[in-house]
Structure formats: structure tokens, C-alpha cells
Amino acid sequence: xxSADTRLVREAPSDLLLIHAAExxxxxSAPRGYACSDSSGPLRGAxxxxxxxxxxxxxxxxxxxxxxxGATQEVLSRxxxxxPSPGLPSCAASASGVPQVIDASGCxxxxxxxxAHTHLVFAGERxxxxxxxxxxxxxxxxxxxxxxxxxxxxxxxSASLAELVAGAMKRLDIMLLHGTTxxxxxxxxxxxxxxELRQLEAAKIASETHPVDVVGTFMGAHAVxxxxxxxxxxxxxxxxxxxLPAVERQGIAQxxxxxxxxxxxxxxxxxxxxxxxxEHGLRPKIHADEIFxxxxxxxxxxxxxxxxxxxxxxxxxxxxxxxxxxxVAVLLPATMFTLMSQAYADARGMIDAGVAVALATxxxxxxxxxxxxxxxxxxxxxxxxxxxxxxxxxxxxxxxxAIGRGERxxxxxxxxxxxFVVCDVPAVDALPFSAGVNPVRDVVKRGAxxxx
Length: 452
Ligand SMILES: [Zn+2]
Known about the structure:
Layout: H1 6-11, E1 16-25, E2 53-62, E3 65-71, H2 72-78, E4 101-103, E5 108-111, E6 113-115, H3 127-134, H4 139-144, H5 149-157, H6 161-177, E7 180-186, H7 193-209, E8 213-221, H8 232-250, E9 255-260, H9 267-279, E10 283-288, H10 296-303, E11 307-310, H11 316-325, E12 328-331, H12 333-338, H13 347-352, E13 357-359, H14 373-384, H15 388-395, H16 397-402, E14 420-423, E15 440-445, E16 448-451
Parallel strand pairs: 1-4, 1-5, 6-7, 7-8, 8-9, 9-10, 10-11, 11-12, 12-13
Antiparallel strand pairs: 1-2, 2-3, 5-14, 14-15, 15-16
The chain binds zinc ion.
């Protein structure tokens, strides 16, 4: 169940003890019980399969921060947080004096999922396009019928700030119920100054009022809007001279993203956008090599992007360049699944090449309406042959690094925000295989028990 008043929950730091997790997946490479900065980077290669599993594990939380992690008996011996309560182990006590204990017997506990690539803020629906696709419609057929990204653009431009916030909050509720505790949200359905700023403002308001943390990305270079049809250079002139400075003044976005794809923006145009973003204080991210091997991965490496996303068509040299430059590859298998494509990204090749791989939903109304990270983990395993442990690493620690949250989110260790999920499966290896079933039983966000 989702807490009725999420603001109240967020503002009430609660002391809490989770005990008896059949498997507690920490995703930490640091020695147990120590806050350690070397857990702030992503895991690569074989290390993605070594994610620090503690059996019969426990977590102690005080004021929203993890204060102890280990085997249940060890943690209970170290944590005299309050007088024992009748019927309960020695445990933490909330501000109200009521002890909170989560018994995770038979369950697997993971860091809260980090959804590193979403188009969270939009208005309008596009389910009719999915029905059209079932009967063989192609992208251009859908465009001719008034669908595609421009239909979302029209709906989003006409939506008020309150409507955009309400839509985002509803989707964040669903994400939270599926274990997501941090999410990245892009603009890019306005493609004019007012709507781009309104999308980012909606993401900020949602982040301040919902338990899920929202990280904003400016993506004015998502498409060319109708008023600049046939003139992408003219549109980019407008973005760089007017929109980007306004986004910088607004101060919400942390990243700048661009859709580098045949028929959208070229590598040279993408380089121009991302360099301008850097000048305005926004770290680069890129939609790269989704359909054609354009060289988007190589551009991400050249610019030191925090992530390169999609990559289903990335070249071998592109993959090697990501590994060399330390760019996180954010893979989006739910998009390929929704488009009924078999062209999934080469996750195994990337992991073997030493690339830090992350996962995300790409949640958006057109090509990936899912909001479920457990479903993405299922696809990562069944369609991209990632192991369950690799997929969990990619959906937590590595995803946090893909959105600049590597020091706060994605790992269960002392000193971190107490963001974790209890999944009703006996082991991490069981997580992906009940496809379509939500395994999440409980969610704790910054020490607050927000889903149970
Ligand atoms: Zn996207």
C-alpha cells in the first residue's frame, strides 16, 4: 500500500531496523560496516556479478541514514538503539517512540532502484499508436495519423504546470510501488522556452512533494518542432541562444541530453548542443546509436559524458571507447520490447569490454510506457542475457552513477541514504523470472517506510 500523505512521510525521519533478509544485496564493494568513498563509482566487467550479498542480513537506520549493515545477529549485537520492546528484538525507535521493525524473512532486500532515463513529465496518451503497430503500422504511418512525438508536444504545450505535476506524481506513485526511489526526468516535449521550463519546474515540484527523488535533464534537442520544420540548424540556434540560457537561469536541470539519430540530430549537431550545455553548467548525456551506428557512443566518450543511452546499434569501437572513457551505458530494453524489435543492445559485449552498464525504463508515452524497473530487470536477463546479479547492479549502483548520484543512491552501506526495497523472492537469482509480477513488498525511502 502507498502511504496516503507522502509529504508527511518524507518529513518524518524514522528510526528503523530491517532484519532477517534471506539475501541482503548491498552493491557495496567496501568492507562491511564502513562508509567508504570507493563505492561511489560504477562496477564494471566481472565485478557487476559480485554485489555483496549478506545472508540473514540486517540494516539499521537512524534519521534516514544507514548506521549499520551486516548479518542480523551482528547488527542486533551492535545496535542498542533503544530498550527492547516486548515481543520485538532490541531495535530502533521512531520519533513517536513506536519501534519500527521490518521482518524480511524469506525475502531479498536490494538498494532502491534508480531509473536513470525517463521522460516522466508529459501530457496526453498514445496508446492508439501501440494498437496501430500491432497491425504493422510504421513510424511514418503513425506520424501521418497525427501520432508520434509531435502529438505529445501538442498535449504538453497546452498543459498547465499543475496538470504536468499531477501526471508526474501519478507516475511516481507507480514507480515507487515498483521499488524505484530515484528517477531522472527529461524535458523535451515542449521544444519552446515556456514549456521546456514548465516541464523542469514540474519535475522539481514533484521531487519536493513525492518520496521519490527526481533529477532533471534538459532535452530541448529531442526533436525539431513544427515551427522549425526542415530547419534543424535554425532550431538549434534558437535552443543555444535562448532556451539554454533560460534553463541555466532556472537552475533545475543538471544534465543536457540530445537525440543523436539519423533523421533527428547528427553527430556534429549533437556535439554542438552538448558543448553548449557544458558551457551552461549542464553535464552531457546522449541518446546514442539507438537505430543506426551513428558514432554517438564515440561522441559520448569524446565529451566525457556521464552516460550514453540506448546503444542498441553501437559499433564495437563505440563500445570500446565508452569503456576507455568511463561513460556509463544506460540500456533500455523495454523500448525494444514495446517496439517489438529484436535489436536489443549487446549488454554481454559491453560488460565483457569493461563498460559500466546501467538499466532504465525510458518511460515515455510513445515507445516505452512501462514504469517498472523489475520488468526491465526481467528483460535485461531474458532478452540481453545479463545475469540477475548484473541486472540488479545495473538497476541500482550503476544507474545512480549514470545520473550523478553515485555517492548517495544505489548502494546499501553505512552513511548512505536509507533507500531500499524488500522483494518477496527468496534470492536475487529468483528476481527476474516471475515476469509481469511485481516482487516489491516494501519500500523504504530515506528511512521512511513508504510502501508496505
Ligand atoms: Zn529517451
